[in-house]
Design brief:
The protein is an alpha/beta fold. About 60% of the residues lie in helices and about 10% in strands.
C-alpha cells in the first residue's frame, strides 16, 4: 500500500502518507465492528470506538509512513473474520498483516486464540476444530506464497524476511542493568495511549482490576468474560515480551495493541458504570450519563494537541537525533578503524555506507571482550557506539576486562535535551 501511494507521485510526500491515513481511519471502523462482535452492548461499543478515534497515539501515527498503521488494520480485520467464523478469510487477512510487517508473527496467538474462544464449545468436534485451523493456515499460506514469489523475482541478496529479522532481532534478553530503564522508556511512549499519563495509568489499573475480577468469576462459560480475560492476558504477555526481550524501544511497536486496549477499556468502563448505577439512588443515576461525556473531554483535549504534533510519539520526534553527529565525527578516521555496535546496524550502514570503517556487531558484552582480546592488536582506532536507552555498565566492564579503557568521545542529545547516543574511544592499557 505504501509503494502504491508513493507511485502516485514520487515528488510529493503526502502520497506516501495517504495509505497510513486511510488505514488509521478504517481501523476506527474496524474497532467498532470488533467491539460489537465481542461485547454486543451499545455503550461498550461506543466507548471503545471513542477511545480508538481520539487516542493521541493513534492520531500521531495516522499521517506517518510507518507500516504499523496498516499492520494494525489487517490484524483487526483478521480478528473480526475469525470471530465471525470466517477462518479462511481470517487467514488471508492475517497473511496480509504478515506481508505488511514481520511483527505480525507475534500476534498470531492473539488472532487464533480469540477466534477459538468465540467459536469452540462443548459440542465442537475435533475435526471441526482442525478444519478451522486448516482454513486459517491455507488462507495465510496463499498470501505468504505470493510474497515469497515476489521476493524471489526481486533478485536481491537479502530477502524480505531476513532483512526484517536481522535489523530488529537482538538475539538476547535484557541485561539486569536494563530492567528499570526499559520500563521507563516504554512508559515514555505508552503514556499517550489513552490521552495523558494519568488517564493511561488509571485505565491500565482498571483493566488489570477487571481482569482479576473476570479470573475469579464463576461464570467461565460466558464467552464475553473469557474473551476479555484472554485479551488482557495477551496484552500483559506482549508488553512483558517487549520489556524482557532486548528489542529496540520503538513507540510504533505499541500501536497494534491500541485497538485491543480500546475494546477492553470500553467493556471495563461500561461494567464500572453498571456497578455505579446499581449502587446509587435514582437521583444519582445522572452520573452514568455524565461519565461518557467526561471521557470524551479527557480524550478530546489531548487529541487536539496531538493534531498540532506536540507529543513525542509517531513520526520523527528525535529518537535518532545525533546519529549524523556520530557519522560526522568518524568521517576522517583512517582505513581499518573498527566501530563496535549492538542495535544500530542498519542506521549506521545508512549513514556510513562509504566510510573506510569496519562495522563490528556485538551480540553480548562477552563478544566485544573476545574480539578485543583476539584482534585488538590489529588497529589502534577502535570505537564503541551505544544508544542511550541501553545499559552501558556491562559492556564497559567487558572492555575493561579485555585490557582496554573506554573514554567518552562524543555524547549526543535530541531536540528535547534527552541523551541519545554515546561514542567511546577504546584504547589499550599500557
Amino acid at each position: 500500500m505504501t509503494a502504491a501511494g508513493i507511485a502516485l507521485s514520487w515528488t510529493d510526500e503526502m502520497s506516501a502518507r495517504l495509505p497510513d491515513l486511510f488505514a488509521s481511519i478504517i481501523s476506527v471502523a474496524l474497532t467498532y465492528r470488533l467491539a460489537l462482535s465481542l461485547w454486543r452492548r451499545k455503550r461498550s461499543v461506543l466507548l471503545s470506538t471513542l477511545m480508538m478515534a481520539l487516542s493521541p497515539f493513534g492520531i500521531a501515527f495516522a499521517p506517518t509512513v510507518f507500516a504499523d498503521p496498516q499492520l494494525t488494520m489487517w490484524l483487526l480485520a483478521s480478528l473480526i473474520a475469525v470471530n465471525s467464523r470466517k477462518w479462511g478469510w481470517g487467514g488471508v487477512l492475517y497473511g496480509l498483516a504478515l506481508a505488511t510487517k514481520q511483527n505480525a508473527v507475534f500476534f498470531a496467538p492473539m488472532v487464533l486464540g480469540c477466534g477459538l474462544v468465540r467459536c469452540v464449545n462443548r459440542q465442537t468436534h475435533r475435526m471441526e476444530f482442525l478444519q478451522w485451523i486448516g482454513q486459517f493456515v491455507v488462507g495465510a499460506s496463499a498470501v505468504v506464497s505470493l510474497l515469497v514469489l515476489w521476493d524471489m523475482n526481486r533478485h536481491v541478496s537479502v530477502d524480505f524476511w531476513t532483512a526484517g529479522i536481522e535489523s530488529n532481532n537482538p538475539h538476547r534478553l535484557i541485561r539486569s542493568a536494563e530492567t528499570f530503564s526499559r520500563i521507563k522508556e516504554w512508559w515514555f511512549s505508552a503514556r499517550y495511549l489513552a490521552g495523558n499519563p494519568a488517564t493511561t495509568g488509571a485505565i491500565v489499573v482498571a483493566l488489570l482490576g477487571q481482569g482479576l475480577r473476570d479470573a475469579k468469576s464463576a461464570r467461565h462459560t460466558d464467552r464475553k468474560t473469557i474473551s476479555a480475560l484472554f485479551l488482557v492476558t495477551y496484552l500483559v504477555a506482549y508488553l512483558a515480551m517487549c520489556w524482557l526481550v532486548a528489542f529496540p524501544v520503538f513507540d510504533r511497536y505499541l500501536l497494534p495493541i491500541l485497538p485491543i486496549m480500546a475494546v477492553l477499556t470500553g467493556r471495563t468502563l461500561d461494567k464500572s458504570l453498571m456497578l455505579i448505577r446499581a449502587a446509587t439512588t435514582k437521583q444519582d443515576k445522572v452520573i452514568t450519563k455524565v461519565a461518557p461525556i467526561l471521557l470524551l473531554a479527557m480524550l478530546f483535549i489531548p487529541a487536539i494537541f496531538t493534531s498540532s504534533n506536540t507529543i513525542t510519539v509517531g513520526g520523527d520526534h528525535g529518537s535518532y537525533d545525533g546519529i549524523d553527529e556520530i557519522a560526522l565525527y568518524l568521517h576522517n578516521e583512517p582505513w581499518g578503524t573498527v566501530l563496535y555496535y549492538d542495535s544500530l546496524g542498519w542506521t549506521l550502514q545508512y549513514y556510513m555506507f562509504d566510510y573506510e570503517i569496519y562495522l563490528a556487531p556485538i551480540s553480548s558484552p562477552s563478544a566485544i571482550q573476545d574480539d578485543l582480546i583476539l584482534f585488538g592488536h590489529g588497529s589502534e582506532h577502535r570505537y564503541l557506539v551505544l544508544p542511550a536507552w541501553q545499559s552501558t555498565s556491562e559492556i564497559i566492564a567487558s572492555v575493561t576486562r579485555s585490557g582496554y579503557s573506554a573514554a567518552l568521545a562524543l555524547e549526543t542529545r535530541d531536540r528535547f535535551g534527552q541523551q541519545t547516543f554515546l561514542l567511546y574511544r577504546l584504547s589499550s592499557n599500557p
